[in-house]
Design goal:
384 residues; alpha+beta; 4-stranded antiparallel beta sheet; two-stranded antiparallel sheet; 8 strands; globular
């Protein structure tokens, strides 16, 4: 069950929930024959026409989502969906076969299906998709006798068909291995170096850096510029640290473990969600090199186009919760840059990651448990 939850609900339920994206190709052919004598007027007119073309294309695309509503500006800012006609109670105004990306809260990852989000209320799902590394010791992807350590590195599904659907939409196990890689590194952050003095010092430095960044943010005259600068600094620092390692060393996460920041469960959720969007971008750009159906690739490409049009609330969110800037730049971004698989690395840039995070803040839908008599609903995760 999906319900969109407003900004303040995200803040309370997921306290630390976290633009070089593809733009529309503007159709400029109609401008080629236009002659305007004054140079200054020509430049201004061209810019105005380009903006109008972009607005028109965006409006057309947004209004193609459903025949039941149109997307229009609201009187209080931003945009909203307005019904085109009176709608009867219970009318389904839009259906989505699957989200562009989703993430499940870690406490529920064994109880919520990775495809259909079916919730087993405390029971562990029977179908597990293991890492390729573990598959070497298992004749099938569905393992029933994995050790405790192996079973923690798996994606869970309610049925064979749901698991098969996930596999069919993957490319060379890239999405699977990326998600399991996050799980593995999160566990290492919890279990290893717990009493390691170097790790303890890193955590102390992390707290100090967070407080320093908060103070600098509060004093910044231009918050947007400040956020942009800190995002670029985080990227440069990551590249500098990686440049000190040999190519073979970079592929061995044991050499990176001290460079990869320890993340909390909210950051864990955000990182998995971001990886889902990055994978969709990779799938769009590599559709000719994989066996995915054209309809599947076309659908995700269309959704990515619509994704570009979503409003980012990054500035407003960080202004309200300054501590998030440290989480976004020095933890989430650094974790992604240091640990994400090579095929997705080209998409990990400050502008792309900032855009993904900013657009998730007020556009994601909650994945909720179905109402039960005398019980509260559980927030299981979120999706876009």
């Amino acid at each position: 069950m999906w319900n969109q939850f407003p900004d303040n609900d995200i803040s309370s339920a997921l306290s630390t929930l976290v633009d070089d994206l593809t733009h529309f190709d503007l159709q400029k052919s109609s401008l080629c024959s236009t002659t305007i004598t004054p140079p200054t007027t020509s430049v201004a007119s061209l810019a105005e026409v380009e903006v109008q073309v972009e607005v028109d294309e965006a409006t057309t695309l947004l209004n193609s989502i459903s025949s039941h509503f149109s997307v229009k500006p609201t009187k209080y800012g931003g945009r909203g969906c307005f019904a085109n006609t009176d709608l009867a109670q219970g009318t389904i105004i839009h259906e989505c076969s699957m989200p562009l990306s989703s993430t499940i809260a870690r406490p529920f990852r064994k109880e919520v299906c990775g495809s259909c989000f079916k919730f087993l209320y405390g029971k562990t799902l029977k179908f597990k998709l293991m890492s390729r590394k573990n598959k070497q010791n298992n004749s099938t992807s569905v393992s029933t006798s994995a050790s405790a350590s192996d079973s923690s590195l798996a994606l869970y599904f309610c049925s064979q068909s749901c698991m098969d659907q996930f596999i069919a939409l993957d490319i060379d196990d890239l999405y699977r291995e990326s998600l399991l890689n996050v799980e593995s590194l999160f566990l290492k952050g919890l279990n290893e170096y717990q009493y390691d003095l170097e790790r303890k010092k890193q955590e102390e430095d992390d707290i100090e850096a967070e407080l320093k960044l908060e103070n600098e943010l509060k004093q910044a005259k231009d918050i947007e510029l400040f956020i942009s600068q800190k995002s670029q600094e985080a990227d440069i620092n990551c590249q500098l640290q990686l440049s000190k390692l040999k190519p073979k060393q970079r592929k061995n996460f044991n050499n990176l473990i001290y460079l990869i920041p320890k993340i909390n469960e909210n950051e864990y959720m955000e990182i998995k969600y971001i990886i889902g969007i990055l994978f969709q971008m990779y799938k769009r750009d590599n559709c000719e090199n994989n066996k995915l159906s054209l309809s599947s690739v076309s659908l995700s490409s269309l959704e990515l186009q619509i994704f570009q049009l979503l409003q980012s609330n990054e500035i407003e969110k960080i202004r309200k919760y300054p501590y998030l800037l440290h989480s976004y730049t020095n933890k989430i971004y650094k974790f992604l840059k240091m640990s994400t698989l090579e095929k997705l690395q080209s998409y990990i840039t400050p502008s792309i990651i900032r855009s993904i995070i900013g657009k998730s803040l007020t556009n994601v839908f909650g994945i909720w448990s179905i109402d039960e008599p005398d019980e509260n609903k559980e927030l299981l995760g979120y999706s876009l």
